Amino acid sequence: MREFELPSFPAAIEFVDRLAELAESENHHPDIDIRYRKVTVRWTSHDKGGITERDRKMAERTSALAGA
Amino acid sequence: MREFELPSFPAAIEFVDRLAELAESENHHPDIDIRYRKVTVRWTSHDKGGITERDRKMAERTSALAGA
């Protein structure tokens, strides 16, 4: 689970859009909570009962998308 | 607080994009939780200590955006 703080609300939504594109292309979808310009992203594999190596890699790619 | 179930994950994201546009134009931003194709939207006025008439109107407009 990681919280990203973007410079503005529109920047937060653009980040969510990029993240959604990645999620859809990988057919793996994180939980996303938007609180104004803060976005919390949680990658888990419910069917595997927790966090897998795949989730860790998606988390890394998410950080890259946020420019963080 | 209301949960909207969209037909797909991309449809859920498109709904969030429409909602974000409304939020930004009104300078009033709801809490948004995305769980695959389910989107929970919570309009509150933190500075007013709860839900106001404005929040109720925004909630109505949100339902219209979701086509629900």
Main sheet attributes: strand count, strand direction, barrel closure of chain A = 3 strands, antiparallel
Largest sheet, spatial ordering of strands of chain A: 1-3-2
Approximately what portion of the residues of chain A adopt beta-strand conformation?
A: 15-25%
| Average pLDDT score of chain A | 94
Low-pLDDT segments, ≥5 res of chain A: none
What percentage of residues of chain A falls in helices of 4 or more residues? 40-55%
Topology of helices and strands:
Two copies of one chain form a homodimer.
Chain A: E1 2-5, H1 9-26, E2 31-35, E3 38-42, H2 53-65
Antiparallel strand pairs in A: 1-3, 2-3
Keywords:
homodimer, 68 residues, alpha+beta, three-stranded antiparallel β-sheet, 3 strands, elongated
Write a short abstract of this structure.
With 68 residues, chain A is α+β, with helices and mostly antiparallel strands. Helices cover 46% and strands 21% of the residues of chain A. Chain A has a 3-stranded antiparallel β-sheet, covered by helices on one side.
Describe this structure in words.
2 copies of one chain form a homodimer. The first copy, chain A, has 2 helices and 3 strands. In chain A, strands 1-3-2 form a 3-stranded antiparallel β-sheet, covered by helices on one side. Helices cover 46% and strands 21% of the residues of chain A. Chain A has helices spanning 9-26, 53-65, and strands spanning 2-5, 31-35, 38-42. The first copy, chain A, has 68 residues and is of the alpha+beta class. Chain A binds chain B through residues 9-10, 13, 16-17, 20, 23-24, 29, 31-36, and chain B through 9-10, 13, 16-17, 20, 23-24, 29, 31-36.
